[in-house]
Specification:
The protein contains 3 helices and 6 strands; from the N terminus they run βαββαβββα. With about 140 residues, it is an alpha+beta fold.
Length: about 140
């Protein structure tokens, strides 16, 4: 069963939205103890556009996949000299207790506009605290 989750990262306006680090911390705090992070493949599509292919075992949900993808992009953005990322889309595919994701992000040195913006530094701190792996 293939389901697509289109994130509203391209919509303008930030008021009233939780930061990506807060979202990642919340997902990490609620993560099931039997989750297994099965790896991340990184594909650079353009200088400022990156795609990740990820997999989580153990009955993960969309929130766990979003947190895993956010952690991957936060580390990747920092490595490449970008401070921010904005989600474009996340596609999910479930097969039994395995959840696979394909996530795309726009990278930026300056904070972009949008409903959901990932700031690399605080997101990485939340990932480390929650035990979520990065690239």
């Amino acid at each position: 069963m293939l389901s697509a989750v289109l994130l509203a990262g391209l919509m303008a306006g930030q008021g009233g939205c939780a930061s990506a680090a807060e979202t990642t911390q919340g997902a990490a705090a609620k993560k099931a103890p039997d989750l297994s992070y099965e790896g991340i493949e990184t594909h650079m599509l353009q200088d400022d556009l990156v795609e990740f292919r990820l997999a989580i075992g153990g009955g993960a949900d969309a929130a766990a996949m979003n947190a895993y993808a956010d952690c991957a992009v936060a580390q990747y953005a920092q490595i490449r000299g970008f401070g921010y990322a904005r989600p474009v889309r996340v596609l999910l595919d479930r097969s039994g207790r395995m959840l696979r994701g394909n996530a795309a992000y726009l990278l930026s040195r300056d904070r972009p506009e949008g409903r959901r913006v990932i700031a690399a530094e605080p997101t990485l701190s939340a990932c480390r605290a929650g035990g979520i792996p990065t690239v």
